[in-house]
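[Discussion] Sanity-checking designs against the backbone

I'm trying to build intuition for which residues belong where. Below is a structure token string of 319 positions. I'd appreciate it if someone posts a full sequence so I can compare it with mine line by line.
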């Protein structure tokens, strides 16, 4: 297992500077945004049509001894606004094609969320089965929008030798292990998850237990923590819509690894990942509103460096 970094937290720096900074932290693997929500500061889809730019991009990575764990294009390809949906879909499609050219096997995305009908203008995330119209909306979303798009898009990815890792995120139709496995059962084995434990914590899902549920469906992993504040949770509940910068009053906030849960928890997390078949990259994602990008990245890298399982065990004498 090894550490990587999701580079939007360093979007203000050119790629060469990003790679140099990460190498100084002992990190030689990156996850790069290609558009949609992460932006494309360090990886342009225009390289698909520009062979010289693609070659120069690859040269930079090689010169720094850096590999790519995933290309990420988190977006809402199911948005009821047809123009927004088309843009997200095209970005995802081109990201898969670029991943194929680069020899990158994983593309990270969101599942998306439709509206409540074909006439809707905004997404509608259903969170309860009653009154009955909510369940009707949810059933319509999956049958009419989610299934047709993802069956086709998963087949496209498979044709190009790429797996799509869906990040389970509230606000979209896939937000839990159950909804993740539902989409995978519909769209096939080229669909799995980008496992971010921070989104499990605040839904009261045990992230370590969820690893055992997801198993081989885990394609990529984000390293990000969450801190819960019981003093506020009794008032807010977990569906807290206050801005992330209102830390004092929120029921929970995202934290740099080690600031929400300690080393003992993270050791069990990485051990369970390996036990269940994942022994690849932990991609550090910084969204801690109490720490700068520089401080958050440095602290996460130093904290996790002592925790990741870097060597695979050899056969024991009794086997």
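Best answer:
Here's mine. Compare freely.
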């Amino acid at each position: 297992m090894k550490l990587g970094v999701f580079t939007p937290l360093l979007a203000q720096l050119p790629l060469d500077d990003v790679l140099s900074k990460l190498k100084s932290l002992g990190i030689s693997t990156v996850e790069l945004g290609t558009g949609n929500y992460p932006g494309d500061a360090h990886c342009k889809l225009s390289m698909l049509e520009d062979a010289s730019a693609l070659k120069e991009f690859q040269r930079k990575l090689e010169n720094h001894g850096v590999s790519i764990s995933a290309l990420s294009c988190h977006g809402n390809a199911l948005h009821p606004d047809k123009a927004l949906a088309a843009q997200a879909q095209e970005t995802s499609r081109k990201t898969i094609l670029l991943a194929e050219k680069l020899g990158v096997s994983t593309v990270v995305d969101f599942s998306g969320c439709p509206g409540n009908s074909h006439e809707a203008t905004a997404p509608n995330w259903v969170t309860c089965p009653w009154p009955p119209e909510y369940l009707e909306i949810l059933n319509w979303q999956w049958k009419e929008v989610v299934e047709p798009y993802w069956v086709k898009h998963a087949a496209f990815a498979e044709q190009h030798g790429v797996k799509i890792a869906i990040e389970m995120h509230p606000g979209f139709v896939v937000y839990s292990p159950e909804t993740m496995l539902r989409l995978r059962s519909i769209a096939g084995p080229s669909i799995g998850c980008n496992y971010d434990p921070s989104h499990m914590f605040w839904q009261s899902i045990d992230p370590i237990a969820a690893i055992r549920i997801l198993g081989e469906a885990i394609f990529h992993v984000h390293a990000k923590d969450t801190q819960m504040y019981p003093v506020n949770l009794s008032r807010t509940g977990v569906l807290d819509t206050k801005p992330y910068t209102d830390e004092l009053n929120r029921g929970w906030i995202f934290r740099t690894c080690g600031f929400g849960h300690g080393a003992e928890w993270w050791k069990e997390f990485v051990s369970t990942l390996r036990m269940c078949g994942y022994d690849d990259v932990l991609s550090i994602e910084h969204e801690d509103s109490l720490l700068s990008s520089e401080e958050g990245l440095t602290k996460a890298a130093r904290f996790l460096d002592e925790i990741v399982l870097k060597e695979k065990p050899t056969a024991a004498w009794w086997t």
